[in-house]
């Protein structure tokens, strides 16, 4: 499997990117708003100033008169250190102020005489903001429009804006850091169900194909469904192949029995040494095949029965005795003594499977024992467990890793010349594991021979 | 107003040196280097000499040309683009207008940063003294009379003794003196006693002066009994020279103007580095860091505490209000009505 970029990191980066974008946006918005607010403040003060001046407009002997009130300028100086320019024009005649100050004439759609209007321009190379107010003053016979304009540079706005902008930048960075921190938490939290499911699947035993029952988020439900369906299909496929093997073994075993009987008869009837030798080899090969087929059948049985395991009370002592009895003739043929030390020990399980397991172990022990030795079967009871151990005086399990011996078709490294399929321990372990127990492989007492133990909970 | 400047320009045929100005005093300190620092100031040499000497000792390579002119003359010169590196004036309003109209350079240094906000504006105008306007009286001429402490008391004592004070009162001619005009307008704005006092003064045939120094001199030599609105620094210096105790300085308790003497570096300045160093020196001296060479009052950092409620006149665009030709004409009319018309009853 190729791991591309981690989903969590991708999510974190994506969310952090969004947070960064929002931070920048909010910073620029605050800066814009700050500038607007500062501009509005300046407009208000300019408006107040120009209104104050316009209020002093009057006529004296047909002449337009005004006086600039002190407050009109002191209010301008109160807020910022901005330069102030002004101009008062009556009709087309300059009354006072800065003659070269360019004031845009005319009114906007919602402006008119008596309303303050604003304009932005430049004077003496500086950007300025102007407020103008026009009032009609009766001079002589006709009313004269008098326009008062007060202008101010915009340093203050820049200073306030950049100050607030700096603060906003600080806040935005703080916001981003908090958001980024939360983002990684969120990413981790939203990926948690995935992790749970992964851990669950990883924890499963090799034969556990039961469906996963999880409350999965909507996005993961299809994956879980697919996984469950896959496991069902896998289970079916495995069962089919087991069935096939059992069927095949069964079909092979019966003709083999016939072949063996015929070969025995032929052996008795034959006198030539060379022929007898060949016939014996044949019988041995047939035995080996038959045994393998039987074990394959056993294995299939174990697998099949383990799926729906019976939970009947079984006396392990009794099972051990019967098992020993059944193998007595085989042992006797090679002068191997079977010593049985049993006691009554009840466990819950499938008697056939347990018998199967024990028989395979015992069979192994007899098979690998040299002639004229003893194989001991012991049933020991504990508070929680029952242990059935089979000890022989054979060559032991060799010096290789013992845990691999329970794998299919795996045989020890020191068993040359002995007929075997490598399925015995596999079957035993499968049967015991189906009961929740375990198989222990070790050395016999005083380091001699092998000791294989079945351990089941009482 | 501008037209007047233009005419002035044509008439004087400006050559870029102080020679075409109406210079009252002039001093040159020769430096070792090429550079010349040209200073135009309203401050008398008597007050500034120690500081100039100390600055020259610190910066021996700079030659200094120090010219004393009236505040109006100074304003006009800068407006016309005179070759000046530092302009010092006590007429805050005129100085401020120069800055507002973009005729000053910005200057920033550790010294300027040490100034409180009210003592600088846009890093272009720097205050280095805070000087109160005072009343100077001749103790001799006031013998037997109560010493007035408020304007109301001044009004009373003058009104009650017209014979004693007739022709013996001095004050600024606000038409000539920029500082006098600033004092008068600020006082008229701040206290209604100003016009009443002007009326009383007008009836006593006041003598009008251009400068504080002459007024104090005339008090000292007995020609004047009372000089109204004198710059405290000059009075203090004069009083220090007088041992007879004939000159007495009164600070009005009801209200007293405090002006800030300010320096600017004109936009046309040539020798900006030296000008900056000079301004730094002024600020340091004004904050009491050059003892021994400073004859002027210090710029107190907490003006609220100097005397109850009277801070210095604020540096700001409001200073330009009374410089407006219409306003000025109206004010001078009223002032003349009060002061001059009654001079010859």
UniProtKB/TrEMBL annotation, chain A:
SMART domains: HATPase_c (SM00387), HisKA (SM00388)
Domain of life: Bacteria
GO cellular component: plasma membrane
UniProt entry keywords in alphabetical sequence: Kinase, Membrane, Phosphoprotein, Transferase, Transmembrane, Transmembrane helix, Two-component regulatory system
Signal peptide stretch: none
Main subcellular location: membrane
Record field: catalytic activity: ATP + protein L-histidine = ADP + protein N-phospho-L-histidine
Domain HAMP: 188-239
Uppermost EC category: transferase
Family matches, as InterPro entries: 2CSK_N, HAMP_dom, HATPase_C_sf, HATPase_dom, His_kinase_dom, HisK_dim/P_dom, HisK_dim/P_sf, Sig_transdc_His_kin-like_C
Compartment(s): Membrane
Tagged with keyword Membrane: yes
E.C. number(s) listed in UniProt: 2.7.13.3
Keyword Membrane assigned: yes
GO function term, MF aspect, one: phosphorelay sensor kinase activity
Domain Histidine kinase: 247-458
Protein name: histidine kinase
Source organism: Roseibium aquae
Lineage of the organism: Bacteria, Pseudomonadati, Pseudomonadota, Alphaproteobacteria, Hyphomicrobiales
Record gene name: tctE
Automatic annotation (TrEMBL), chain B:
DNA damage in keyword set: no
Signal found in the keyword field: yes
Coiled coil start-end: none
Superkingdom of origin organism: Bacteria
Keywords carried by this UniProt record: Signal
CC per GO annotation: outer membrane-bounded periplasmic space
Protein name as catalogued: Periplasmic iron-binding protein
Organism: Roseibium aquae
Lineage of origin: Bacteria, Pseudomonadati, Pseudomonadota, Alphaproteobacteria, Hyphomicrobiales
